[in-house]
Amino acid sequence: MTLVGWLQVLALFVVVLICVNPLGKFMSRLFSGERTFLTPVFGPVEKFVYSMCRIDPEAEMPWYTYLFAVLAFSFVGFAYLYILLRTQQWLPWNPQKFGPMAPDLAWNTAISFMTNTNWQFYSGENSLSYLTQMAGLAWHNFVSAAIGVSVAVAFVRGLANRNIRTLGNFWVDLTRSCLYVLLPISVLGTLLLVWQGVPQNFHAYQTVTSVEGFKQQITGGPMASQEVIKELGTNGGGFVGANSASPNENPTPFSDLFELWLLLVIAASLTNTFGRMVKDQRQGWALFTAMSIMFFIGLIVCYPQEASGNPLIHQLGVLGGNMEGKEVRFGVAASSLWAVATTATSCGAVNAMHDSFTALGGLVPMVNMQLGEIIFGGVGSGLYGKLVFVIVTVFVAGLMVGRTPEYLGKKIERKEVQLAILYIIVTPAVVLIPAAIAVLIPAGLATLGNSGPHGFSEILYAFSSANANNGSAFGGLGPNLFYNVSIGIGMLAGRYLEIIPLLALAGVLAHKRAVAESAGTFTTYSPIFVTLLIATIFIIGALVFVPADALGPVAEHLNILQGKVY
Amino acid sequence: MANVEQIKDTTIKHLWTSIVFTVLSVIVLGLIYPFVMTGIAQVLFPWQANGSMIYVDGKPIGSAIIGQLWTKPQYFQGRPSAAGKGYDPTQTGGTNLAPSSKKLIAAARATIGLLERENPGATYPGCAAPCAPPMDLVTSSGSGIDPDISPEAAYWQAARVAKARGLALAAVDALIAQHVQGRTLGFLGEPRVNVLELNLALDTLNRAR
Predict the structure, then answer these.
(1) What pLDDT, in 10s, does the model give residues B107-153?
(2) Which of A466, A471, A473, A470 shows the shortest CA–CA distance to A429?
(3) Is B100 in contact with A312 (Cβ distance < 8 A)?
């Protein structure tokens, strides 16, 4: 560990922090239907979209209509991408003449992008046309992120609304997220990334003869415009297989910091949007504080592990941090920071190969995902996931003092807690059950990249990532029919089995009457509450995952200390 | 029955909206956005947008941001690569080997042996000779096309390169020093040397003699 390394962490935290208030305020105005400085630019486009799609922007939706719109749009997006992946060989902008993707892989990929996961069982640079990349994957990067923001905003309305049954209009929230938030930042971000060296072109790969006479194909394509929304929308599916470790996607330490900012900024700012929409900004800052503390806890474990390196390599006389799977321009510090950030959010882009992290260094991204993507989390999904844990925490606090718990003036009763638990139980069910099945059948073991405890870690990581809609991988695990299908199901469940109880919960909360604050009301922005919230999250996560994690990364760590290899 | 009709109407309405919204947003976000950005990028930053190509005698010999395979003693070598047969930009990725992997340790041992045979008695500033190769020369990068090595890894190879080219070690060391890129803004990333640029500078140096 070095001081310079921590300085990078601090720099990232500061550039995110200074955006939380202005971007949070902007989104709060936007989703409350107020004028913003971008209204003159996008207002006419918005109206055009509404008229073409026959959307009545004034029509308010109850929770089940909102949910239905989310599901209908997701399904159409899924079908569209599946068809595109299967027919790209006949469509334009395919200079490398790539053929269609195999059906099970296309199914997996289409679900992966629909659910904001971006799990990569394919490598874009040798299988996807430019059209598929930009109009298929990058398009999903926009809209799946916008769906997340919309659902989060609907849930916040449920908390803020008093005695009303509606949560807003999905189509309006979706359109505004895309046009006013994601698109403008992407436009500016693309230029910054191209300036740093990310390609943005449409020509075929250029074959060159290297200095020593080897043939090399220099890859191209509309990379920068996709890279920026990949991070901003916490999607994470790279244009190329190596993702942001590739110098094509992430050429310099500066582009690295900028991409880290992109993947954190919306999720962090939404806490402020939430605070403003419930008319108590302290509530938003409490969430932001809890998220930041959990972020640093992960880094305090991961960074020293990577910096101290692999003792088995040290025994060969080569000293230093763990550089296997890492790039020289980033080094250990920026790679550890990225691993924590990409799994604290649901981004899942990588700038180093997590599979080759030290045992405990690799445990951190895994735990981050298993906690349910609530340390900032995905755009939108992080906020609503966190709020579900807040409700559980309020309930636990209520039990301790023996009174009916309240949150933001709403009584938290049986129905609310049931729905919150239904949400939380998805994670263990969707991670542990398929992981157990995978270790019991030959197909589950056939494509492992490593053996011993680390082989199990690869399986556990895959299902943790699928459920969390993260998309990062212990990349040694290869695709086969079993994993294409089971991870596809995991991603679906992780997204929609959570959104369904969540929107139901929003509906229940929305038409509750407000109760007056009293001396006995538990303040939900105090340091005590933040501590309790973090403890609740860790306790639930630990109760569920400690045994499984002990069999994977922890066992591997202990074995390495004894010099045992597999 | 009215209720059933109502549900049917809502279903059709939202499916219709989904389809039209998909078409419109694909046009705006999936086509217009990348094409317009390409147009602007090609005007503002044409060199980067087209892959940061490097030309020698009018011929493209590679990209400044993508590493190449180096095997000859007179050139500085890059890191081990898991991308295809080595430094293949169409097969990017790392080894994905675990820290407890037998293969990883065996590969590292083999690489160290080879490097030490090729660079007998090699050293770098801050290390008393002979010293083992720096970590980055022994481990594979994440992308398999890492264009850089650490300054230590460059100095460690300097004696071999100087000997193969008939240059003074001091001249090669000075060239490395010129090509060390420090941390961005003094604290971002790590110091590094772009192998392709360093090797091209070596060729230029030799030609000047």
Answers:
(1) 999 999 999 999 999 999 988 778 999 999 999 999 999 999 999 99
(2) A466
(3) yes
